[in-house]
């Protein structure tokens, strides 16, 4: 593909030779002849002078010694370019002979079902969706159009996936939530988990992530959410539109995460809480109480991020501060002994 064609398809301004042939994509340090790269972080500006890339995607105010595509969002534009230059291979429509398809299942046009996949009774799979090897779709599952379920994914009974949902390897959608009732003798009895999971359109679920079914009603992941690997979403949780959950996030049952929120890596959220729209929790934050819309929190227990940053700067100095306090106490004691203690008679 020549650069001019790529510029037209991406809707970018072209600077320089549009006849350059683009044969690959790479980061700015690794790029070589024929590669398209991008610059989105100012730390990499010095590399513009030495890059061997054929072309680079830059912001409107950035110049480069090679042909450029100009974008207000170079990273997003590069992501779109990668999909054009290196499109992923889609399996051909059809059903592998080793797959088990229940007679009552309904498969839309151009669906692919891979080796050893299981499609249970009453399942519906929308047009052009891809069910990779060893995926299990249990009874009554609904999968929308243009979905991709990678190998070893399990979607449990009656859960629903919207259109263009991507589920990475080994994720489990709709396992029983962690619900038990304790009797007077201290024994635990399982609370039946009779709800479902609903995943709306354009959601991606990471590898080995678990989204538990609701005890009653729904666990719901709203449109456009991006969920990383090894995330635990408890029963009856709701996650608002376009929220991001990074790796190893854990959300306990019946909590609500609002629209456009960001929970960074290893954030833990206690049960029955509300995380407001647009809230941000930085990495390893522990959230024991609700967080308001737009708040940025850190630490455990979660506090305002700016307060946490000031406090964390003090942590490393605590041993020295303790030594100074003890020295001041010793000196004060010595001074008091010399001057006499208040209330003592001469």
Can you describe this structure?
- The structure is a single chain.
- With 346 residues, the protein is of the alpha/beta class.
- It folds into two domains: 3-85, Udp-n-acetylmuramoylalanyl-d-glutamate--2,6- Diaminopimelate Ligase, Chain: A, domain 1, CATH 3.40.1390.10; 94-306, 3 Solenoid (UDP N-Acetylglucosamine Acyltransferase, domain 1).
- The strands form five sheets. It has a twelve-stranded mixed sheet with strand order 6-9-12-15-18-23-26-29-32-35-37-38, with helices on one face. Strands 7-10-13-16-19-24-27-30-33-36 form a ten-stranded parallel sheet, with no helix packed on it. The protein has a nine-stranded parallel sheet with strand order 8-11-14-17-22-25-28-31-34, with no helix packed on it.
Task: List the main descriptive attributes of the protein structure presented here.
346 residues; Udp-n-acetylmuramoylalanyl-d-glutamate--2,6- Diaminopimelate Ligase, Chain: A, domain 1; UDP N-Acetylglucosamine Acyltransferase, domain 1; 2 domains; 10-stranded parallel sheet; 15% helix; flat
Compact description:
With 346 residues, the chain is α/β, with parallel strands linked by helices.
